[in-house]
Amino acid sequence: xxxxxxxxxxxxxxxxxxxxxxxxxxxxxxxxxxxxxxxxxxxxxxxxxxxxxxxxxxxxxxxxxxxxxxxxxxxxxxxxxxxxxxxxxxxxxxxxxxxxxxxxxxxxxxxxxxxxxxxxxxxxxxxxxxxxxxxxxxxxxxxxxxxxxxxxxxxxxxxxxxxxxxxxxxxxxxxxxxxxxxxxxxxxxxxxxxxxxxxxxxxxxxxxxxxxxxxxxxxxxxxxxxxxxxx
Length: 231
Description:
The chain is an alpha/beta fold. It has one domain: Rossmann fold, CATH 3.40.50. The protein contains nine helices and eight strands. Strand 1 (6-10), helix 1 (21-29) and strand 2 form a beta-alpha-beta unit. Helix 1 (21-29) packs across helix 9 (215-229) and helix 2 (45-57) packs across helix 3 (71-78). The longest helix has 15 residues, at 215-229. InterPro entries: AB_hydrolase_1, AB_hydrolase_fold, Sec-Metab_Biosynth_Hydrolase. It holds the Pfam family Abhydrolase_6. This is Pimeloyl-ACP methyl ester carboxylesterase.
């Protein structure tokens, strides 16, 4: 008998599944043993959504789908599968039909917007020297250095990929705003959260990397979604 839903975690730009490390440990402490973290290729929204759907389809029973940063766009595109019971957005993009992460950012550029640079192969990077202040200023210097060196750059065109049918229009949703976010403007987060009419919005005094700096609070929100949609 499955007592708790599976938790499927979806990372965003400039990171991988390991960005969820502190959340995974906290979930495990609280008795969740069916935890999955998608490793997205970051090559296109279609590719990333398909990779996430494949992960969901491998999971028996209900799924609470959690997305950080660009991972919010991925769960918005992939979250309509019938066993997905809730969507949880962590400092994340939540595009509407025809919207892209790039368009949303251009409307309200974040503080670190100019630190994002392309390379000659068509990938976008956060400048290593700017990574700490742009992505994770509330983490220690060593942890920020590791994130900067191991960052996973998206193909630049992924920023322009648009959502087709947003799952948050049909699925109950939760949203965490990072008030000190330099990668997605906090007011943009508030705007996206408000229009999806989530069950709950939590604001944390945190950087974009709230999943790493505030894992207990992030898991509290995930548990809120679990409790509201289980049984």
